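Subject: sequence -> structure tokens, single chain

Hey, anyone have a minute? Need the predicted structure for the following. Not urgent.
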Amino acid sequence: MMRKLNPRELAAYAAGALDPGEATAVADALAVDAEARRRLAALNLRMDEIRGIDRWRIPRLAVEGRVEPLAAALAGAAMTGGRAVRGGHPFAILVNPPDRAEAWRPVVVREHDGVSEVVYPTTAEEWRSLDAWPRAGEARELVVVAASEPGRHRYVIALSPVGAEVDWAAAPDARWAELRAGVEDGTTFAAAVELEVA
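Reply:
Had a minute. Here:
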């Protein structure tokens, strides 16, 4: 019989307040309970709203119906030391396409101080498929310019199928709402990297 998660367990899990054994038990229950995953996603969004955080959530669970996690990492060549990048300078994110690079176009979202902003693409004309980006072994190298604000930044990379419709006349939040929903429900390839901007 499937274990039902109560609201208190979901809240504690979302807040990271469970000990490792309890967190594993909740994760196991979430892996087989779609309704509980929806409740957890709604709870996470509400908690972020209360905290004033706008964040693209990438599911941690590997469950049926979800895509495999996208492989992405920071490239070492652009780093000034460790994972620090100087503000206003370019850095590279290595992305391993799930299959044919020409089938996907990347969207890069920067998150800092509770605000999310799509930094690539900003126009339809500049939006290129992964095969147009430089190759680094099996990966593609997405070059992004670091924000000028110092501190910890999170970059989410989501892959949109080539040919997907995007309403460029819409406000950015509306423009990317469908892609964001796919990232958050685990049906869209996505990954995140974090770096320090000096």
